[in-house]
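Our preliminary data section would be incomplete without showing what the modeling component actually yields. Below, a chain of 49 amino acids is followed by its predicted structure, encoded as tokens that our downstream tools consume directly.
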Amino acid sequence: MIITKLLGLTTFITKSKKAKIAVLGIEIAVLAYALYQQKSEEKNKRLKS
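Predicted structure:
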């Protein structure tokens, strides 16, 4: 994922653990949202059938 590449870039630029944790937190939030959207779409497909 793009955010994983950003984590590598963040590691290269700074050794800050807080920055790494922030990037990981954003990545987890994006993945959680994508899973939620996928489940919503599947649920809508079942209801339409």
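The CA atoms of residues 8 and 41 lie 32 Å apart. The mean pLDDT is 80. Preliminary results of this kind motivate Aim 1 of the renewal.
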